[in-house]
Amino acid sequence: MRVPRAGAAGFGQLGEVRLRPFRSFRKRPKKIRDFGKSVFGSRRTTSSSRFPWLLKLSVLIAGLGIVLFTFRSVPLLAQFNSLIPGLPRPAPAIQMLRLLPEERLRNLFTYNGIWLFPKNQCKCEVTKPQGYDFQSAYDQSDLPAVNARRQAEFEHFQRREGLPRPPPLLAQPNLPFGYPVHGVEVMPLHTVPIPGLQFEGPEAPTYEVTLTASLGTLNTLADVPDSVVQGRGQKQLNISTSSRELLNFILQHVTYTSTVYQNHRVDVVSLESKSSVAKFPVTIRYPVIPKLYDPGPERKLRDLVTIATKTFLRPHKLMTLLQSIREYYPDLTVIVADDSKEPLKINDNHVEYYTMPFGKGWFAGRNLAISQVTTKYVLWVDDDFLFNSKTKIEVLVDVLEKTELDVVGGSVLGNVFQFKLLLEQGENGDCLHRRSGFFGPVDGFPSCVVTSGVVNFFLAHTERLQRVGFDPRLQRVAHAEFFIDGLGSLLVGSCPQVIVGHQSRAPAADQELASLEKMYSTYRANTKAQVQFKLALHYFKNHLQCST
Amino acid sequence: MRVPRAGAAGFGQLGEVRLRPFRSFRKRPKKIRDFGKSVFGSRRTTSSSRFPWLLKLSVLIAGLGIVLFTFRSVPLLAQFNSLIPGLPRPAPAIQMLRLLPEERLRNLFTYNGIWLFPKNQCKCEVTKPQGYDFQSAYDQSDLPAVNARRQAEFEHFQRREGLPRPPPLLAQPNLPFGYPVHGVEVMPLHTVPIPGLQFEGPEAPTYEVTLTASLGTLNTLADVPDSVVQGRGQKQLNISTSSRELLNFILQHVTYTSTVYQNHRVDVVSLESKSSVAKFPVTIRYPVIPKLYDPGPERKLRDLVTIATKTFLRPHKLMTLLQSIREYYPDLTVIVADDSKEPLKINDNHVEYYTMPFGKGWFAGRNLAISQVTTKYVLWVDDDFLFNSKTKIEVLVDVLEKTELDVVGGSVLGNVFQFKLLLEQGENGDCLHRRSGFFGPVDGFPSCVVTSGVVNFFLAHTERLQRVGFDPRLQRVAHAEFFIDGLGSLLVGSCPQVIVGHQSRAPAADQELASLEKMYSTYRANTKAQVQFKLALHYFKNHLQCST
């Protein structure tokens, strides 16, 4: 749901926020999504147009009950204007009401030099080195069909997730009702009491109160005759009594029964008496079922952590890694996923070895490996890493145990590789802004920081990592893709003081191994086709437009 | 957070709901969690104790601002009583206010004959055939240590999920403010405008309004001197002006900036003027990143569906299954996970074959298989199934495409096997009530039903299935465990008209195969140890107490 685009251009006309909107709507639709220009737009005052506008606005507000509203892609003042109570005010006073100078407004909504809200045009400047227009991954001729499929899949996704969420629900002042503004939850197909309902309006010979639900039915636990309460077990409950006390007793015992099986829905229940209407949300949601891991009586590291890796055509690197691991962690379980031609023989009781179809790919292997983990945490390492005395898994465990982080990375040799992902929502897909660095320190761990993505050496909550997963569609070079899939579900930290080494990049002396490495490199290379594929994946799968 | 247990016993004293609570609190704590008995408790009236109680209640309400409240484990009237405004009322009137007879109250909260709310004692009657007290899986002597670990892990889980959720927020009547009761969302570390703020209280020489946040900071876009607005960019914003119009302009342009990096948090922002306080939630949440699949220009079934199976020591069954699949679906990709001793040779370009450590187990294999799927949907089949003309995958695809279901099962021969899972929340773990059958028809598909669990033959949204996963800790017989892990995240349907066959259970004629089958059966058997392990897993991992 969107605010009518009225007044989108108004952001620019600082002194006239109440006057311009519906004019703009009628006369300057083009400016609507074009704040940059409108900032310096003309400043004609148009008091004459005030009353038609107020009329429309009151009709709009009265008609909708709640203001159609969203943060997603509506310029700032359009939102505010639409919320201004529709009361005429003296023109002179209006002139006093100014917003901050544009520069200060911008700064309030600027992150890392990226000015997001209320611009929300999600126009990426793809000129930057990392900048990509994901659409460019497709042939122009295919785009119409691709976009139709993308839109259809996106709508199916939204329907299932209960998106877009209903617009904010705005309470009017001086409502005679007490009611729960937040936090009433019911499991699908279950019944709950609604707390806090009461009426404290003016005295009257009889009180008529009506409750209305849309995704469920209403009832009251009060024992009163049908003449007083009508519509028990239906979507509309009517109460009519001359006793305010009885009315409140009935209200205090109202119940809501969810009649839809869909999860994650919000019903907006209304409570009416005469011209007063209160609306409040009832969230239909199933509780989260925990998936806990028992660390065992001694809380040994091997009962808390599993090491996972993926290898391809370089057994010597893998073996070197395993040896280095054993030097420091003799009994940790190591899970190896291998999509090479020949299966390996590994004599290590604590290594679990899995073979895959040849060349199935990098993320497929990573996803296989983590699918087998049975401990609370999993440590990801590449097959050419090298453990040393600074590779302290315990430190990473301590961070995850004492914070809400889902993933915490270390560093590979000197390489810390922290990056932030900033999401800017747009109508035809979101824009993703990637910047190196971090957001701030981790609570309680000053040497660690919160960020969006880290190196290929990280400890993670197994259950959370499995939930995000490594997309097996990504066959070759892929890394940031995982953290993009994890946006919003993975809280990522980085503790550079925990360091893993890297094996020499010099080619192997041994003939056979050298030829294997050659073959490996031909597969490892990020071909143009691969890059195109990844861009297309962001465009279609993640519903992104571009990245900067 | 819990309501003081006052009045828990009150449910029984129908005519005296206002009088008994704090007496009960003082004198009959034992009854509190024991509604069954208290229903028939004594009926002494105790008007004398009314005023101390009212005093306490008003202090309670005033002091808390919102009523401490939860549906989780507080008997019904305790909740309602705590919400009754603390105003003395004539004793005679009180006598009229009765709740429905107990029988009708029970019925309102009874599902499948299981009476849940407000009993919420989560005492399973484990006498039923399927009934289990999960604690019994542990040695009595180990329990104290186990419970300590279980509690610690549960608390870590809750901290990370932002649980328990704050109690419902109750709006008082006749507040002079307009404000957003629901739907204001901000990404962690981002800034949003707060819509709908306004003051419509009585005229006054100066208006003093204070906004307070706890997980973020406040500001306003209004350009006003510091004498009018104090605390920009801080947790408390103070507005002081003699112009109501300016006050409302400032309020209409208030912004909220999230200062915590944790996701899924709710900040309760308060808006105060004199004695009036409005509170509203600001949800700190990252948008969900879509993971869409491109069905391709022709929307071929092979671009939409992958078949996944797990096999162990019975290659002939697997081969028979594959042949039957190819009869009807020549080019669908089939993913096979095998933890047998010897790897198989399968000559089929559309079969992906994975080998695992010997006997790694049933759910590990299932989890491996689904980790490799790259299509929107995945069809699960056992290795001893047999496709026939009624095995119409297209029908199941149609159901998932047109509904919000995540999983839709068919039937195996005549076996429909639908079961419902009812969750009853409790303090030391939840109770799970399992009943055969379904909840109701699927919207738009009268021949299909909504339920909680189905047979081992189902089509699922790959992304959702991977998110829930098959717990690799479950090595042997396991089935319902998956649907329990999926409670609240999987919406399950069943369409029995889509049927898969089952291969003959007669032992193989061939000597070698027969001996394999023997070996298989020794592994397949659900040993006592295995059963214990599963019960323990429900107790610890899912934080359940028992099942009926």
- The helical percent of chain A reads 25-40%
Task: Provide the structure class of chain A.
Answer: alpha+beta
End-to-end Cα distance of chain A: 28 Å
| Major sheet characteristics of chain A | 10 strands, mixed
Name the biggest interface: A-B, 149 and 149 residues
Describe the model:
- The structure is a homodimer of 548-residue chains.
- By secondary structure, the first copy, chain A, is an alpha+beta fold.
- Helices cover 27% and strands 25% of the residues of chain A.
- Chain A is built from 15 helices and 28 strands.
- In chain A, the strands form six sheets. In chain A, strands 16, 17, 18, 19, 20, 21, 24, 25, 26 and 27 form a ten-stranded mixed β-sheet that branches. In chain A, strands 6-15-14-9-12-11 form a six-stranded mixed β-sheet, covered by helices on one side.
- In chain A, β24 and β25 form a beta hairpin.
- The longest helix of chain A has 19 residues.
- The radius of gyration of chain A is 30 Å and the shape is elongated.
- β5 of chain A pairs antiparallel with β4 of chain B.
What are its keywords?
elongated, 27% helix, 15 helices, 548 residues, six-stranded mixed sheet, ten-stranded mixed sheet, alpha+beta, homodimer
Characterize this entry briefly.
The structure is a homodimer of 548-residue chains. With 548 residues, the first copy, chain A, is α+β, with helices and mostly antiparallel strands.
Write the layout of secondary structure elements.
The structure is a homodimer of 548-residue chains.
Chain A (H helix, E strand, L loop, with lengths): L20 H7 L7 H4 L11 H15 L11 H8 L7 H6 L5 H7 L1 E2 L2 E2 L16 E2 L9 H19 L7 E3 L5 E6 L1 E3 L4 E3 L4 E2 L7 E6 L3 E5 L8 E2 L5 E6 L2 H9 L1 E5 L6 E9 L2 E9 L20 E7 L3 H14 L4 E6 L12 E5 L6 H10 L5 E4 L4 E2 L6 H10 L4 E6 L6 E6 L5 E7 L3 E3 L2 E7 L6 E4 H7 L11 H6 L6 E11 L8 H14 L3 H13 L3 E4 L1
Parallel strand pairs in A: 6-15, 16-17, 16-19, 17-18, 21-27, 23-28
Antiparallel strand pairs in A: 1-2, 3-28, 5-8, 7-13, 9-12, 9-14, 10-13, 11-12, 14-15, 19-26, 20-27, 21-26, 22-23, 24-25, 25-27
GO molecular function (chains A, B): acetylgalactosaminyltransferase activity
Protein name (chains A, B): Beta-1,4 N-acetylgalactosaminyltransferase
Organism (chains A, B): Equus caballus (Horse)
